[in-house]
Design brief:
There is one protein chain. The protein is an alpha+beta fold and 308 residues long. The chain has 2 domains: 128 residues, 60s Ribosomal Protein L30, Chain: A (2-Layer Sandwich); 137 residues, PurM-like C-terminal domain (Phosphoribosyl-aminoimidazole Synthetase, Chain A, domain 2, Alpha-Beta Complex). The protein contains 7 helices and 13 strands. The strands form 2 sheets. The protein has a 7-stranded mixed β-sheet. A 6-stranded mixed β-sheet has the order 1-2-3-6-4-5, covered by helices on one side. A hairpin with a 2-residue loop joins β2 and β3. α2 packs parallel to α3 and α2 runs parallel beside α4. The two termini are 13 Å apart.
Length: 308
């Protein structure tokens, strides 16, 4: 049986002890943080996107693919409330990929780069000699924003669990056109203190499980409070879509009840924030159904190392 992404990531982290004086945040968060001297630091992330997995070039345009490749890494910056600085992109091109196609891809990358003030400063281009799929990898640097970078491991019992936007149905096209919540993350952290945060790339059920595991806590989600997107409402099971579809790229975060009350009262942004539950001391993820039943909430979101 193949290991899960979280299992293999944990194994990687145990193979080498990193100096906490230099590597302020290592493997396991949305970005790593490296000290660069005199109290300054830089954060880094990288994301590989594959044709047939993260998009389908039979239906997606190259501009959409370029945009998504940058936006996914920008979402990692949002996940820790950091400010994007610059990016590099590497592409593996199928045989026969034309100059015009490369320019279309570049246009999508630059649209995201300009929109979020994160210049593309370099990269690499290579091509397959034989048959091979299109792949693109964006690596991005950022710097701390209004607060120290928000990690996944700080959730506390009694915290409110919140999300931005609406969830589910990304496969209907939203996964190519989402807005990374960079601005919203910085606005939230300028207003209140967060205990934990990440972006919803693999699905609420899987990503909340990561926060719970790394924080040593449980969570109780209220099904009736989960903001189901219009696209997810078209699914056979809208709630399951909202919990498990993934690639929402919204923010999932926890904060004290007092801080949530302050945020709820002052939040005036067009992007809504919804309290969907609370952090508990059970060590388990649970969901309260509309009829009052409390069920276990299993992580059934996207698994990167799943075969088939």
């Amino acid at each position: 049986m193949s290991p899960t992404e979280d299992e293999i990531t944990g194994w990687f982290a145990r193979q080498r002890q990193l100096s906490p004086a230099t590597i302020l945040i290592g493997i396991g968060d949305d970005m790593a943080q490296i000290a660069v001297g005199q109290g300054a630091s830089v954060l880094i992330t990288t994301d590989m996107l594959l044709d047939g997995t993260h998009f389908d070039l039979r239906t997606a345009t190259l501009q959409q693919v370029g945009y998504k490749s940058m936006a996914a890494s920008l979402s990692d910056c949002a996940a820790m409330a950091t400010i994007p600085l610059a990016a590099v992109a590497a592409v593996a091109l199928p045989a026969g990929f034309s100059e015009q196609q490369l320019k279309e891809l570049h246009a999508g990358i630059m649209f995201a780069a300009d929109k979020y003030d994160c210049p593309l400063v370099g990269g690499d281009i290579t091509s397959w000699r034989g048959r091979g799929p299109f792949a693109i990898c964006v690596s991005m640097l950022s710097k701390p924003g209004n607060s120290p970078p928000v990690r996944r491991n700080g959730a506390k019992v009694g915290d409110a669990v919140c999300v931005t936007g609406s969830l589910g149905g990304s496969g209907r096209g939203r996964h190519l056109e989402f807005e990374p919540r960079v601005r919203e993350a910085l606005k939230i952290t300028a207003c209140v203190t967060l205990h934990a945060m990440m972006d919803l790339s693999d699905g609420l059920s899987s990503d909340l499980n990561r926060i719970c595991n790394q924080s040593g806590v449980g969570a109780l989600v209220h099904a009736a409070a989960v903001p189901v997107s219009q696209d997810a409402k078209l699914a056979a099971d809208p709630l399951s879509a909202a919990l498990n579809d993934g690639e929402d790229f919204e923010l999932l975060f926890t904060l004290s009840a007092e801080q949530w009350a302050k945020l709820e009262q002052t939040w005036d942004d067009p992007v809504p924030i919804t309290r969907i539950g609370a952090i508990t001391n059970t060590g388990r993820m649970q969901i309260r159904m509309p009829d009052g039943r409390i069920n276990g909430l299993e992580p059934h979101g996207y698994e990167h190392l799943r075969r088939g």
